[in-house]
């Protein structure tokens, strides 16, 4: 893959652990067109008592990486003190982590600390799936004349165990790019996937979705990593993945074939909207009927049976369980809303009499 086909590549370990680990990782990454070498210096751990980063020493080692291998260097900052040290050690970029983006007070503190420092910033998505919060953090920084050069999509926290460590919610990243097309959209497959074998397919997906770059955690000895061991890959593995990634060339996509598919989608979308409208009209009739016969709007047993039956049909047809469940629930919710509206209208009519 040529460098211009993926403008930004950021890699390096989840955490700086030792001087030897950091330098060996950087040395093994030589040959890749790295835009920045990354390493976490202060680690936001979910629970106390775990390794929380090496602190200022790590910044010295990062400087050594820069001097020895010529890579630009970056780390995560979460407090004004981190920012002051990042400036002191001449970091080329800093990013704001998912647990900081979520908190407007923290972002505000960082914005004030970064103002006038001339350090470009990237902003990871917040841990919760909230586009406005992500955009809000970016805007908060920009109001302090800080140069935001990228938004990093690292997925959103989940409670139930899923295939991914963090739910990608692709639409949020796509919406962000639509709102702010001039910003580089970077994918972090390490934190989305949470497993080393998901890096390659997710990175390819980033290219398919026209992302501007990738941030991938790499470690000289991933199995022994002090943090995020399951998701880190060796620099050698990253080189293999990088070589195998297939860029999509928009000009080479057969425009006609694409147009035909889009036309088909548009016809199907029209039918879907039409069917939804018909379904809701019937729901309204049912609402009138229930009102006239003084029946409950929510009939739990019927709802349970419908959910089960429809879910089975959807699964049999090959739709994903998550999507099918959400879709069926949304349809039901909207039907209830319509029936409640019928009810309250009738109530008003009665009270008027
Ligand atoms: C990291 O990049 O190592 C990190 C802690 O990321 P996030 O803020 O996405 O959890
Ligand atoms: Mn990490």
What does this structure look like?
The protein has 353 residues and is an alpha/beta fold. It is 52% helix and 10% strand. It has helices at residues 19-29, 56-69, 80-88, 98-101, 104-114, 131-142, 170-179, 189-193, 199-208, 235-244, 255-292, 300-316, 321-352; strands spanning 8-12, 36-38, 73-76, 93-96, 121-124, 148-153, 184-187, 213-217. The N and C termini lie far apart (75 Å). Phosphoenolpyruvate is lined by residues 14, 40, 44, 76, 97-99, 124, 154, 191.
List the helices and strands and how they pair.
Layout: E1 8-12, H1 19-29, E2 36-38, H2 56-69, E3 73-76, H3 80-88, E4 93-96, H4 98-101, H5 104-114, E5 121-124, H6 131-142, E6 148-153, H7 170-179, E7 184-187, H8 189-193, H9 199-208, E8 213-217, H10 235-244, H11 255-292, H12 300-316, H13 321-352
Parallel strand pairs: 1-2, 1-8, 2-3, 3-4, 4-5, 5-6, 6-7, 7-8
Bound molecules: phosphoenolpyruvate (PEP) and manganese (II) ion (MN).
Residues 14, 40, 44, 76, 97-99, 124, 154, 191 line the site of phosphoenolpyruvate.
């Amino acid at each position: 893959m040529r460098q211009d086909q993926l403008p930004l590549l950021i890699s390096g370990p989840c955490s700086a652990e030792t001087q030897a680990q950091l330098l060996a990782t950087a040395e093994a990454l030589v040959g890749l067109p790295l835009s920045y070498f990354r390493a976490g210096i202060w680690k936001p751990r979910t629970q106390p008592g775990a390794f929380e980063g090496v602190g200022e020493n790590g910044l010295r080692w990062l400087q050594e990486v820069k001097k020895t291998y010529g890579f630009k260097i970056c780390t995560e900052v979460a407090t004004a003190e981190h920012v002051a040290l990042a400036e002191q050690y001449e970091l080329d970029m800093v990013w704001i982590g998912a647990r900081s983006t979520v908190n407007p007070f923290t972002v505000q503190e960082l914005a004030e600390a970064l103002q006038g420092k001339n350090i470009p910033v990237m902003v990871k998505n917040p841990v919760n799936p909230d586009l406005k919060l992500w955009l809000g953090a970016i805007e908060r920084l920009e109001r302090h004349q800080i140069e935001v050069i990228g938004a990093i999509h690292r997925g959103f926290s989940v409670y139930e165990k899923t295939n991914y460590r963090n739910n990608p919610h692709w639409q949020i990243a796509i919406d962000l790019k639509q709102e702010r097309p001039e910003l580089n959209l970077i994918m972090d497959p390490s934190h989305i996937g949470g497993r080393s074998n998901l890096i390659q397919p997710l990175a390819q997906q980033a290219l398919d979705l026209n992302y501007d770059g990738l941030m991938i955690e790499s470690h000289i000895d991933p199995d022994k990593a002090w943090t995020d061991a399951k998701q880190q890959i060796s620099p050698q593995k990253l080189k293999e993945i990088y070589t195998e990634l297939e860029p999509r060339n928009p000009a080479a996509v057969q425009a006609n074939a694409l147009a035909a598919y889009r036309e088909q989608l548009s016809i199907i979308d029209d039918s879907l909207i039409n069917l939804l409208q018909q379904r809701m009209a019937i729901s309204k009739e049912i609402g009138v009927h229930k009102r006239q016969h003084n029946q409950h709007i929510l009939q739990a047993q019927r709802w349970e049976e419908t959910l089960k039956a429809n879910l089975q049909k959807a699964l049999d047809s090959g739709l994903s369980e998550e999507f099918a469940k959400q879709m069926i629930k949304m349809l039901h919710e909207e039907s209830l809303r319509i029936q409640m509206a019928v009810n309250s209208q009738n109530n008003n009519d009665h009270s008027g009499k």
